[in-house]
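A student in our group prepared the protein record below, which I am reviewing. What it holds is a sequence and that sequence's fold in token form. My question to you is simply how this chain folds and whether the tokens agree. Do not assume that whoever made the record got everything right. I have pasted the whole thing underneath without changing anything:
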Amino acid sequence: MTDTATTFDGTPSRWRTLLRPRLPAVLIHLGISGAIFVVLMALIVFVWYPGPFFAHDGGWRGTLIVVAVDLVLGPTLTLVVFDPHKARWKTVLDLTVIGLIQAAALAWGIHTVEDQRPLAAAWYNGAFHPVTADLVRRQGGDADRIASLHEQHPALVYVQVPADPAGREAVERRWGEGFAPQTQVELLVPLAPNLDALRAEGELFRRLAAADPRFREALDAFFLAHPGVDRERAVLAAFYGRYGNAVFVLDPQGRRVGVIDDAFEGIL
């Protein structure tokens, strides 16, 4: 039988001469990167993109960025560059350069993911829409003020459009500058005093449930799985995320108690 580590003529294979000596360094690098990845994923899943925001508003994309720069880039560079036969100082230099490249790429990735995280979901024109950290910063907005508008994170807020002509004109002008009404930080107010507007829109879902069997089954399944939620008093509200739609289920105080998404992609 032929040794799998040699070629047919008995000379060492490429695996033995190139890859195998580098494997310990790659595995060490991958282990360190994996530990960093676990910390970053906890931050993304539980802090920056919690609950439905992970699936529907960019959490998955943020995860892919972290995987690319943390678990792929660094270990791959180590596999390509590391050579155990080099002088010690050259090996240290190589690994230092690799570490700096990975750190810079990871810093960029973390900044990108954090910049696009939703600070709030704002109710406007019949649905909730995400308000990202980037949009708030570009307007000079106060993230702490937005967070104070609601007890949950991201905050559920209401867009209070001015009734006077001058105020509406200002909203239109800001819209022309690239800030849609649902993202204009000065229009964001607490949700609870405005729940009647959501209740009126939520009646649409109840009518859909009566007409659409798939919709009705999803609704029934949700309340069966959440016996503590009062079905008659719950408020149903659409959420239009950047990468998918869902239905938020709110309690009478305007707190999100759950989400229904699987049955609604073709309807919302």
Q: What stands out?
A: The mean pLDDT is 86. The first strand starts at residue 118 and ends at 124. DSSP finds ten helices and seven strands in the chain. The two ends are 63 Å apart (CA to CA).
